Amino acid sequence: MKRHTLFELAWILPSLALPFGILVAILVTVFGVGMHVPSAHSRIDPKQAATTPPFDQLGVFETGYMSYEVRMLARTWSFDPAEIRVPVGAEVTFVVTSQDLVHGMLIDEPNVNVMLIPGEVARVKAKFDKPGEYPIICHEYCGIAHQTMWARVIVEPAATVLQTTENGGDDHAAR
Ligand SMILES: [Cu+2]
């Protein structure tokens, strides 16, 4: 084989291998690992959001053992509820939409990253294994006070939650 043919092959083969490798990686993550983009679960009229179930009752709802559903509305420039309390080990399903502009919802760890499009109901799951405070921030620019739009998840150690339940001060309403 001529020397320049080898040089050409040395460029062409990797440029074929690269997209093929990427295609295989996509197929494996979608069909093998089951990874998907967080997609719209259902649609509602954003102007009627506050009176449309499940957003007519916002907050934290216990759906089973260590399983919680958080119904949340994003609006310029706040999240409602702004504070979410769950016990350590809780698996939380966030059911969220925006009632005005495009907002975002980002929790660094555990990884929650979703775009909140007016009227598109997003449904994302996250497990909170360590006690502490987890900020939820809007990461889609939404106007002059965008940087003030945030909320937080407070993950309480097991003992604290037990105490609040004994005092009857449990604020996690059962469904
Ligand atoms: Cu926002």
Describe the protein's architecture and organization.
Strands 1, 2, 3, 4, 6, 9 and 12 form a seven-stranded mixed beta sheet that branches. The protein has a three-stranded mixed beta sheet with strand order 5-11-10. A two-stranded antiparallel ribbon has the order 7-8. Mean pLDDT is 88; it is low at 165-175. Helices cover 22% and strands 40% of the residues. By secondary structure, it is an alpha/beta fold. The longest helix is centred in the N-terminal third of the chain and has 30 residues, at 3-32. It is built from two helices and twelve strands. It has helices spanning 3-32, 158-166, and strands at 40-43, 59-64, 67-75, 78-80, 83-87, 90-98, 103-107, 112-116, 120-128, 132-137, 150-156, 173-174. The structure holds copper (II) ion. The site of copper (II) ion has 7 residues, from loops.
